[in-house]
Amino acid sequence: FNLSVAVGLLAGLLGKTTTVVEYATTTTMVTTSNTTSSVTDATSNPLAGPWKDIRLLPPYLVPYHYMVDLQPNLEPDINGKYEFNGTSNAHFHVVNTTKFIYIHSNKLDYNEVVVLDKDNKEVPITQHWLYDVNQYLIVEMQEGLVEGANYTLHTKFVGELADDLTGLYRSTYTNSHGDEVTIAVSQMQPTDARKSFPCFDEPALKATFDIFLWHKDPNFALSNMPFVMTTVRYDQYEGWKRTEFQRTFRMSTYLLAFVVSEFGYEHSSTAGTPPVQTRIYARPEQVINKNVEYAKNITPTILEYYETYFDVAYPLPKSDQIAIPDFALGGMENWGLVMYRETALLYNEAINSAYNKQRVANVIAHELTHQWFGDLITPLWWDELWLNEGFASFIEYVGTDHVEPSWRMMDQFVLIDLHDALAVDALTTSRPIVAENIETPDDINGLFDDISYSKGACIIRMIHQFTGEEAFKLGLKNYLEQFAYGPVDHKNLFVYFQAILATQGSTNPPGGFITAMDTWVLQMGYPVVNMTRDKDVSNRATVQQQRFLLDPQADITQPYNPLNYKWEVPVWYIAEGVLQKLYFVRAKARPRYFQFTVSEDSYFIGNYGAYGYYRVNYDEENWYRILNQLSVNFTVIDVKSRSQLIDDSLTLARAGQLKYEIALETTKFLRNDSDYLPWKSSLNVFKYFDQMLGRSKVYGVYSDYMMYLVEPVYNNTSSTPEGHVEKLKQGIIMDTACSYGSVECISNAENLFHAWMNNPTSNLISPDLRTVVYCQAVANGGSPEWNFVWERYQVEGDSNEKRALQNALSCSKESWILQRFLEYTLDVNLVRKQDASAMYVSLCDNEYARDLTWDFLRKEWDYIYDVYGSGFFSFSSIIESCTSHFSTDFELQELEIFKESRSDQLGSGARAVDQALEKTKTNIKWRADHEDTIFIWLTDTM
Ligand SMILES: *[C@@H]1O[C@H](CO)[C@@H](O)[C@H](O)[C@H]1NC(C)=O
Ligand SMILES: *[C@@H]1O[C@H](CO)[C@@H](O)[C@H](O)[C@H]1NC(C)=O
Ligand SMILES: *[C@@H]1O[C@H](CO)[C@@H](O)[C@H](O)[C@H]1NC(C)=O
Ligand SMILES: *[C@@H]1O[C@H](CO)[C@@H](O)[C@H](O)[C@H]1NC(C)=O
Ligand SMILES: *[C@@H]1O[C@H](CO)[C@@H](O)[C@H](O)[C@H]1NC(C)=O
Ligand SMILES: [Zn+2]
């Protein structure tokens, strides 16, 4: 699915890298791992048996078909509780005889549990019980089940239709008549299908499904497949209807989808034979306002393109996509019925920004990639989640680029995924892409991170670059065709590329493709590649690698990995203006370097085009030559490489591997560069300066420098830009100019805002500038501005616009306004719980609100812990953002005291607190080592 939930306006317009991820609360599970008891012991003790081992399900029970019949009740019972009930038949094959059936089940109560043989005769059972620790329903048979036979587990059950965003759940919204409407929707990935019906809930255990859903007028039902028929009931179920769907293909349980709603839709279809019907569903108001048009228009084009690109047909007869008012993720790739949060599917040109539009296209292109990568073929186990998310996160650029060729998506990849992954993966707390010890639902949830998504995408992009487009496509086609409807692991993928490269007679990578790729997926991190001119032979340079870690004091050999943190590194470089083809710095073979000749007076740039997943460092002489080229004529250096030079040099400096005097010089050309890419890269790395130097004597001269860089670009940016990327740029440039104090910029923002305040029914502010204008007007205004935004926030129906308003609320510089706002966040009538966490994160991004917010959170910790304590991402992101600027001994002490005093109330944020302590120490050291150098450089430069 798509994780980057709130990136919309923040990352897009403000140059911030914080990703606020909202995520469904997941049950915390206790894992007991004493699994020595055998099956026979269990008869006397229901709590001791192989089900105590959370993985795997018994390999000797293999499901092949289910019938699932669900009846969600959209009216509460007399206690105000919402419920659903259901009937299910799970058909399975017995490979080895056993007296025990165990199957996943979570938060379901059973009225009936019966086992039937192939003639539908009841097979006697001794007892059945729930083993909640591992979410199992266990059935003990009187006699062992017959080896080689088929059986059916027939159950009737009841569950809560909660508003918890998991399994089968309820979502509510207010319709155009002002009435509250309740709908039933589902979110199964990764482990919540078992919360809707008992099932063998593991990705590899694919089966076919016959789905039935009950509903009442005016609602109708949707599921993965087209409906067969709807039966109207006149018996004791009068008022109910029951819809039956076509049998699914063999698929994983986590990809099932159910919806009961009165939504509207628009439809189109692909041009193929037979055409695939594509529909976009949303609340009726959204359809009337034409907010589904954009999704409707691009979907068939993307599907057709993927069919050509993968050379494998879209397998289902229809493709539905639906926008859900309450949804934990950006999007979820359920096969044939993809679900989205509203901001990821709906777009309105008059209200929403270019960034919002880009996000819609990206998320659609991502989820549609999953219809093949994830749905048709599925990882054997969650530890290979990157085979889903890495592919979807790379191919989404290919798909979006096809429908919107002017957006420069393939360039934007560098900013969005490459730089993100390189940042996270330089920490000692990272992990290998192919994860280890993944057992509990908590473990599985933890894998939906930047490593599976962004690093996965970077590795696949690197493969694409060195195999070339044709070999890449052929490899994917073979892989998809071979493993369709089945499970896969990374070896299944690599083997095809190895074979194709062999038929092409390629000798690259030198040790073979599989060996090379293992170095990238089986160990964490990545290398820094040094390209240095030899001291004794001045026309020769040597290329070597070393693991890169951000913390200069970290041990680069830890934790132990048999691959020893050496990679098979593909190197492309430019020397004397000529691009040199592929060389490898080898992991094992000796020598572990290569050399090339270079003329004595020119420069070279490694990883040209930024296709490799690594950083590059040079000898000082070469850095100065590159700097000279940037200052004389930067346009001869590819724009992706200009971005990469900034990101590499400033990160290397932070890690103590390059002088800040040199790294800072790489930003000087920005004053003359009006391209979006290098600017966005530099704002991402300068964010650290903002956090560290916000209260230091350096801040004054640092602001002056930023103004010096941005002013000419601001003055040359059209106020009515043409073109998508220009619009993205306009937003970040205006934000930068205003934030570092441009009087002209601020008064421009204030004028635009006040014109709207004076005439609230007509908002003439360009959608691309709204986030910046609202924020600046609040930051530089007083309570009238804040109150106006607050009122609009309360009534706004468009989700993206609401986000822009929400963000602005945290921009104030007035303590009393901020304090009042913080108190509002505790009142669920004013602020929805799911929105409050993002508010704290934005508040902590504001220099003027940080301390206040952190004090407030500490004071209200009991409440905060209660609400967010068990939801992984929101809790961690609050802690992360509110401590990111900590860089003094005093702050370190405070954090230590906090950890001590709340040790039993850190929940899923415990790791984030430890990381914060670690980072604070590194920050203190960074300031001690570099603050003066930076101050002197800035003072000399300005
Ligand atoms: C596991 O069970 C064995 C045998 O009952 C017992 O001796 C041992 O202490 C148990 N280990 C744990 C970690 O509970
Ligand atoms: C739900 O429960 C009612 C009342 O027990 C029952 O009549 C109905 O058949 C159940 N529905 C399903 C789908 O099992
Ligand atoms: C399980 O069944 C398979 C296939 O029938 C057989 O080869 C294997 O020996 C059986 N294992 C046990 C433990 O009975
Ligand atoms: C069990 O069901 C599978 C799938 O329908 C079928 O292929 C197989 O023949 C059945 N086996 C027996 C023994 O009935
Ligand atoms: C790469 O360069 C850095 C900085 O000069 C140095 O610390 C490191 O040892 C070099 N690594 C290799 C493998 O040459
Ligand atoms: Zn995804």
TrEMBL record:
One of its GO terms (cellular component) is extracellular space. Residues 1-19 form the signal peptide. Residues 604-921 form the ERAP1-like C-terminal domain. The keyword Iron-sulfur does not apply. Residues 294-499 form the Peptidase M1 membrane alanine aminopeptidase domain. Binds 1 zinc ion per subunit. Zn(2+) binds at residues 366, 370, 389. GO terms for biological process: peptide catabolic process; proteolysis. It is a single-pass type II membrane protein. One of its GO terms (molecular function) is metalloaminopeptidase activity. It is an enzyme of class 3 (hydrolase). Its EC number is 3.4.11.-. Keywords: Aminopeptidase, Cell membrane, Disulfide bond, Glycoprotein, Hydrolase, Membrane, Metal-binding, Metalloprotease, Protease, Signal, Signal-anchor, Transmembrane, Transmembrane helix, Zinc. It is found in: Cell membrane; Membrane. The record marks 453 as: Transition state stabilizer. Residues 62-255 form the Aminopeptidase N-like N-terminal domain. Its main location: membrane. PANTHER family: AMINOPEPTIDASE, PROTEASE M1 ZINC METALLOPROTEASE. This is Aminopeptidase.
